[in-house]
Amino acid sequence: MISLAGKRAVVTGAASGIGRATAELLAELGAAVVLADVDEAGGAEAEQTVIAAGGRAVFVRCDVSDAADCERVIATARDAFGGVDVLFNNAGIIRRSTVCGITEDDWDRVMAVNVKSIMLLSRRAIPLMRAAGGGSIINTGSGWGIKGGADAVSYCASKGAVVNMSRAMAIDHGPDNIRVNCVCPGDTATGMLVEEARQLGGSLEAFYEEAADRPLGRIGTPGDIARTVAFLASDAASFVSGAVIAVDGAGTA
Ligand code: NAI
């Protein structure tokens, strides 16, 4: 059984989906958690859920593409819990378009939320991890960051960047005992997938039906990803760094 007792974690995109499930699990395993999200209502609700279950949590309203917001998130972890041991860079957005149709604004927004955010948060968290003797950073990539996908060129580019920047960060910060890994979910039942289905003119049901033919016969749940992140956050993964881990039931990544 993994324990995260005594660890201080920051989770972005913690108001819903994968981030929320992960924040709840990390807290259940003993970590104190800062939940960061642009969605104030969802973030406050997630914070209350963790506290009601006996965990320690603080919600910070944050746009992860904004440098000052990111500084505030890490400062909150320092002031409320004394530091940061685990950083889960998970907030992300998707815009559907080919390279011919995408607007520059959409391109820049996807890059800022999915990629720049990791730099903004990590550069503040790493000095605290270094001071504490090490830490674990987990970045959320995507199966589409490895093999590409249709009609989402900015998203695929951003997630490819997340995959390779995770490897680069692992090399740079390994000497400080800071491990950096990238989790690449396949189709996972969250609000993002519902929105994707809507933009494609269908519903989540179509994803479930199509998944019946995949090796494990289903799409992922937020808990599937959360358990992988909890392992990577823990000391059980003390020699796992620079890894790109598909969590997709052998389905898409
Ligand atoms: P979700 O839409 O349920 O959650 C994303 C969260 O990020 C939301 O709470 C949203 O408010 C927050 N967020 C969006 N922009 C933000 C910003 N600028 N600042 C702070 N928070 C912001 O989606 P899901 O599926 O939980 O996504 C989590 C991560 O997993 C994303 O990086 C996504 O790209 C990745 N992913 C999801 C897959 C899926 O099938 N659901 C597949 C592969 C990767």
TrEMBL record:
InterPro entries: NAD(P)-bd_dom_sf, Sc_DH/Rdtase_CS, SDR_fam. Pfam families: adh_short_C2. Keywords: Oxidoreductase. The keyword Nucleotide-binding does not apply. The keyword Oxidoreductase applies. Signal peptide: none annotated. Belongs to the short-chain dehydrogenases/reductases (SDR) family. NCBIfam families: PRK07231.1 (NF005559). This is SDR family oxidoreductase.
